[in-house]
């Protein structure tokens, strides 16, 4: 990112603040709702994916650990009363791990332009679900398997498999455990991705964390403030508007 203009850096900072806000307030979507905008600024997925991955590692572990401490303080040591559903998390990981590894190999071997098109295409599918108020839903065990396999693969290619995975977890994990359970899952999946980046010699853009982490932290603080409101309020209008915006952005990105 050394050859960008000042306004491009400013846009990237704002997008990472947006990513932090979405990640903390919803528990997912920080990558899928930020990548389309980032790729319009700089069409190089492997520049941004390591940055997003490190942010996921930091904030997911922080939020999950804090939730664990709060759960213990509230007397949540009994089974099912903690902030993380470890049993279902282990079951899901057994299904997702191989597709995840296959997706990682695809990311590291496919050309950048093709990966960008794949990412925008995936985002359009997600956005259509939001815009039409028909997000992915899992209604049977076999659909669960398919969504988890696809979610693992997409997560391996681009870190934006969350909507597929959430569609399954929301049906099997208690509401009070859902966000923190997802954060632990994101942490595990991202560790796999980061190891692959290191092995492949991908530039982790470490110097840019000095200014992008504070941007994401600002979004995180705002996300914490609205988290309780979002989980109790009717947010259908928000997601519909967001879905339409993502469709427009993705179409523009594909055309350009």
TrEMBL record:
<feature type="transmembrane region" description="Helical">
    <location>
        <begin position="114"/>
        <end position="133"/>
    </location>
</feature>
<keyword id="KW-1003">Cell membrane</keyword>
<feature type="transmembrane region" description="Helical">
    <location>
        <begin position="6"/>
        <end position="39"/>
    </location>
</feature>
<keyword id="KW-1133">Transmembrane helix</keyword>
<feature type="transmembrane region" description="Helical">
    <location>
        <begin position="46"/>
        <end position="65"/>
    </location>
</feature>
<feature type="transmembrane region" description="Helical">
    <location>
        <begin position="145"/>
        <end position="170"/>
    </location>
</feature>
<comment type="similarity">
    <text>Belongs to the 4-toluene sulfonate uptake permease (TSUP) (TC 2.A.102) family.</text>
</comment>
<protein>
    <recommendedName>
        <fullName>Probable membrane transporter protein</fullName>
    </recommendedName>
</protein>
<feature type="transmembrane region" description="Helical">
    <location>
        <begin position="182"/>
        <end position="200"/>
    </location>
</feature>
<dbReference type="Pfam" id="PF01925">
    <property type="entry name" value="TauE"/>
</dbReference>
<keyword id="KW-0812">Transmembrane</keyword>
<feature type="transmembrane region" description="Helical">
    <location>
        <begin position="237"/>
        <end position="255"/>
    </location>
</feature>
<keyword id="KW-0813">Transport</keyword>
<keyword id="KW-0472">Membrane</keyword>
<dbReference type="InterPro" id="IPR002781">
    <property type="entry name" value="TM_pro_TauE-like"/>
</dbReference>
<dbReference type="InterPro" id="IPR052017">
    <property type="entry name" value="TSUP"/>
</dbReference>
């Amino acid at each position: 990112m050394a050859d960008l203009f000042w306004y491009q850096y400013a846009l990237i900072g704002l997008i990472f603040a947006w990513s932090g806000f979405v990640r903390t307030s919803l528990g997912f979507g920080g990558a899928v709702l930020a990548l389309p905008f980032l790729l319009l600024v700089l069409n190089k997925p492997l520049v941004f994916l390591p940055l997003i991955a490190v942010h996921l590692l930091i904030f997911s572990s922080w939020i999950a650990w804090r939730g664990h401490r709060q759960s213990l303080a509230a007397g949540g040591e009994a089974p099912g009363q903690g902030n993380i559903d470890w049993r279902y998390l282990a079951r899901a990981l057994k299904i997702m791990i191989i597709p995840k590894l296959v997706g990682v190999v695809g990311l590291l071997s496919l050309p950048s332009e093709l990966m960008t098109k794949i990412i925008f295409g995936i985002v359009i599918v997600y956005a259509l679900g939001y815009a039409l108020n028909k997000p992915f839903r899992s209604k049977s065990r076999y659909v669960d398997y398919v969504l988890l396999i696809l979610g693992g693969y997409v997560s391996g290619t681009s870190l934006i498999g969350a909507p597929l995975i959430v569609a399954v977890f929301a049906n099997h994990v208690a509401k009070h455990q859902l966000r923190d359970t997802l954060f632990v899952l994101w942490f595990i999946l991202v560790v796999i991705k980061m190891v692959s980046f290191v092995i492949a010699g991908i530039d982790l853009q470490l110097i840019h964390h000095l200014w992008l982490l504070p941007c994401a932290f600002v979004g995180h603080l705002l996300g914490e403030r609205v988290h309780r409101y979002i989980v109790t309020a009717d947010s259908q209008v928000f997601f519909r508007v967001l879905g339409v915006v993502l469709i427009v952005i993705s179409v523009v990105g594909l055309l350009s």
